[in-house]
Amino acid sequence: MPHSKPRLIVIDTDPGIDDAIGILLALASPEFSIAGMTTVAGNIGIETTTRNAGRLLAFAGREDIPVFAGAATPLSRPGPEPLNLHGKDGIGGVDLPDPTKQPEIQPAVAWLTELLLSEPAGTIDVLALGPLTNIARLILEKPDAATRIGRIVAMGGVIHETGNVGLRSEFNLWADPEAAAVVVASGLPLALVPLDVTRRVRATRDFAQALAASGRPLAAMVADLIESYFETTTHRESRPLHDPCVMLLALAPELFRLEDLRLSVSTGSAEEAGALTIDENGTQVQVAMGVDAPAALDLLVAKLTAI
Ligand code: RIB
Ligand code: CA
């Protein structure tokens, strides 16, 4: 990560097991100064994603970081059913404390607007781990603030591989394709981390056990989260660390191969919704198309066991 002083970031998230791992990685990384977390419905409903954000901060002793509840539903279509993948509590049933601080009263987009207008333009990055509804609303309702975002790094989409919802659709973009279309078409500096890359960064049970053996609290919690990821699926040798790849790209871009692609987002119905198409009339976006997965996993371990 090129910045010498901590980079001011906002984490927009729908925790979610893999979101939680990414959030704990960010909390363990002094390269980031987390201004706040904004929550969105996605893996599970907004009350639970917001509660889980608070639980993670309570666990890490970081109640100084505020949580702002965002969109309960997509821009213009019904929200997805909760994913069983993340368990009934949305975070794999791991032993996290209750939140020790309530979410802020201010809605997410209002806070994002205030923050972006109060800090120098370009000094805040948004790490987006869920459906892009909050960011799309910011762009639509408060464009003067949105244009002050330094960069959006978002987990979403799939380019050449098969989707995880439909043939060409990935959950975050599928859950709110209109929002994804707004964010991609906005022309804001955007780096997408699609399934083509996140499926390469995989955690095995041995990887989890090595984290647990470190005896470090955040590493041990990530080990529990990975183990729970195995419980909610069957017959899998390893689990993809989708959302942590956003933090890993922000921390160590040299581990990723980025391509500039001109993309459009389908807002069609059913399986096509959220599908990305390489389109000469689309908007240029940086897309991570390659990763040094072993080095990325080593970096994850190094950060989680250093705190
Ligand atoms: O497709 C993977 C994405 O969908 C991840 O962000 C995961 O948390 C779910 O939200
Ligand atoms: Ca997520």
The average pLDDT score comes to 95
Radius of gyration: 17 Å
Could you name the CATH homologous superfamily?
Ribonucleoside hydrolase-like
Strand line-up of the largest beta sheet: 3-2-1-4-5-6-11-9-10
Bound molecules: alpha-D-ribofuranose, calcium ion
Distance N to C terminus: 18 Å
CATH level 1 class label:
Alpha Beta
- Main beta sheet strand tally, sense and closure: 9 strands, mixed
Class derived from helix and strand content: alpha/beta
**Count of helical segments?**
12
CATH topology: Inosine-uridine Nucleoside N-ribohydrolase, Chain A
CATH architecture: Alpha-Beta Complex
Order of helices and strands: EHEHEHEHHEHHEHEHHEHEEEH
Count of strand segments: 11
* Overall spatial form: globular
Task: Classify the helix fraction into a percent range.
Answer: 25-40%
